[in-house]
Amino acid sequence: MSPLARARPTGRGERRRSLSLLLRSRRSRVRRDGGHDVAGQRRGVQGLRHQPTFRHRARIVNEYFRRVTAVVSDFFTGWTQPLAAELGVPHVTFLPSCALHLAMSHSLWRHLPRRRRPDDAEEAVTFPEIPGSPSFPWRQLSGLFRQYVAGDEVSEAIRQFFLWNLDSACFVTNSFAALEAPYVERPLPDLASKRVFAVGPLSDAVATSSDRGGKHAVAPASVAAWLDAFPDGSVVYVSFGTQHALSPPQAASVADALARSSPAFVWAARPGTAVPDGFDAATASRGKVVRGWAPQVEILRHRAVGWFLTHCGWNSVLEAAAAGVAMLMWPMGADQFTDARLLAEAGVAVLVAEGADAGPDAGRMAGAIAAAVGKEGDPVRERAAELGKKAAAAVAEGRSSSRDLEELVEMLANVVWGPACP
After folding, report:
1. Could you say which protein family the record assigns here (predicted)?
2. 55-92 confidence digits (pLDDT tens)
3. What is the SS3 assignment for 63?
4. Which of 73, 230, 321, 333 is found 20 to 30 A from 41 (Cα to Cα)?
């Protein structure tokens, strides 16, 4: 049964409070890694087979329990929008990523930009209806869109999902206005001029990383005790998320760069990452390799950590932003190139490599790490610290994300129960 259906509020004020609490409770249920990989997208497409079951259960709930009052769904499940319309309830599209990526994704599926040079992966695609008219090379666009074939049944179904999203009452993103003001402060044509509610950073609602994700390979207290020995802002945290394992040459380049540079580091190496033999022993005095799931939230919030070498998965970005930690960027795919652009616009990150198949130069990466931790990186760290304060302020009562959440509740309440009496 829908959580909204179970809430059973009696008065109008209680109804609004119940809806607000239910939406707030979702803050701790965001996917750990943020990025939408192509495989995950295809699995999302397969969810279309659940449409008849979804329709049947919704009707049972409506008939025998409290009626469904709203449908909030991931932006890959646009097929839920016509079902919400059948039920006569509002539909809300949620994206656990940034508003810029949300607008770009729907722009692609609306306009289906054609390539003039099909063999040129660097051919630029511009988004004229998005503030700043951002431009990206073809290779950095959504893998799902790049696989589109006109007339293909699956391709056309995927496109329809996104077009259905445009009939939603509004959009909700796990972001905050201080990071994305141009993309959330006014309606965008690529989102059918619908309101975008930025209610993040949702990750900050979770007190510790032990509340979500996988089992830690090392206790948070153990890592914290190791970090305690280093000065403020002097340690580089390295993690490329849970979906992409570095190839042996890539892992060797990262290890070489860390060995050549002087800063202390914590490297969270995903299972399957080929950390070179002998690397741990050679860097033991200033380095710690965690093989498996690391307590990322606690690491980023430790005073000793000043930089984060990251793949730019959105939840990792938000966790770093909330902690006031600057970033060294290696975007690899999905929404990560969009995320990297936002970070560059905010001046809180430095690009060191790009692409899932990239073979980064260890010397260049080592130089970037050394420069970041040195005086050259001070302005970036200062801006990151300021962004951290803005992220914390955004979710405070009465501030941007908190206001957006309350306005979302008010909008849904007005649709479901009618406007409040004066």
Report:
1. Belongs to the UDP-glycosyltransferase family.
2. 666 666 666 566 778 899 999 899 999 989 988 889 99
3. helix
4. 321
Structure tokens at 376: 């050259």
CB 303 within 8 A of CB 388: no
CA 188, CA 180: separation in Å to the nearest integer?
A: 13
Q: Smallest Cα–Cα separation from 254: which of 344, 352, 373? A: 352
Residue among 146, 172, 55, 66 at smallest CA distance from 409 = 172
Check whether domain 209-393 has CATH 3.40.50.2000, yes or no:
yes
Helices (H) and strands (E) in the chain, counts: 18, 12
State the alpha helices, DSSP H only, in 173-313: 177-184, 220-227, 248-260, 279-282, 296-301
Query: Which tokens is 252 given?
Result: 């060797």
CA 378 – CA 373 distance, rounded (Å)? 8
Please report which confidence band the pLDDT of residue 168 belongs to, taking 50, 70 and 90 as the band edges. very high
Mean pLDDT of the chain: 85
Residue 192 region by backbone torsions, left for phi larger than 0, else alpha for psi between -120 and 50, else beta: left
> Strand pairing partners for 351?
329
Residue 415 corresponds to which tokens in the numbers above? 């649709």
Nearest Cα neighbor of 210 from 195, 222, 200, 199 is 222
At residue 26, the pLDDT reads: 44
The domain limits of the chain are 3-200+396-417, 209-393
The residue among 111, 54, 60 whose CA lies nearest residue 78 is: 54
Answer whether 3-200+396-417 and 209-393 agree in fold. Answer: yes
CB 315 within 8 A of CB 96: yes
> Which amino acid is it at 35?
G
CATH 3.40.50.2000 fits 3-200+396-417, yes or no: yes
Q: Which residues contact 338 (CB under 8 A, 6 or more apart)?
A: 97, 98, 100, 101, 104, 136
- Region 225-239 average pLDDT: 97
Residue 9: asked if its preceding bond is cis (omega within 30°), the reply is: no
